[in-house]
Amino acid sequence: MDTDKYKLKSDLRQKICGALEKISPAVRAVESIDLCDRLEPQLRSAHTILFFAPLPDELDVWPLLEKLLTSKTCALPAFDATTQTYSARRVADLETDIATGKFSVREPVTGCPEIPLNKFDLVLVPGMAFDLSGNRLGRGKGFYDRILAAASGIKCGVAYDLQLLETIPVELHDAKVNFIFTPSRCVRRKN
Known about the structure:
Elements: H1 3-21, H2 25-43, E1 48-50, H3 62-68, E2 73-80, E3 85-90, E4 98-100, E5 106-108, E6 114-115, E7 122-125, E8 129-131, E9 136-137, H4 143-150, E10 154-158, E11 164-165, E12 179-181, E13 186-188
């Protein structure tokens, strides 16, 4: 691991965390609605979608999951303690299929059927920051990099406008996204 890049990434995570903490609940709610409105038309052509369960400092895509649950094949990442990796499990009922899992994140219960990561049309991706080249800065554990490396379909980063930067520090193992959706715009990655 390149220690300079590690430090740059760590410093950027701290800076973004500080900025995210300053977003009021009211602004968070409005921007989540704006993001969902912008993202929903893009989800219409997808049949199998990997969502994520938003953390408190992330934009809330959960209403889209609720809305599309009956018309699309929807899944969420599920942590496997044995392999220390995430897989994808189908969610059909948010009342019975969801439990609090690893890192206090909502995830499908064990009985939900697994969907191979190479069977998705669309993957919604959280991140601490994204850049115009589709690079993603995660939370530092590499879980989403491994999901994205195995996942098929279009990968869409989901972020506040302040999380979309010109460039971010990257390493070879860092996965890219095809698009980044924010409350105010959609950016297709530069190749």
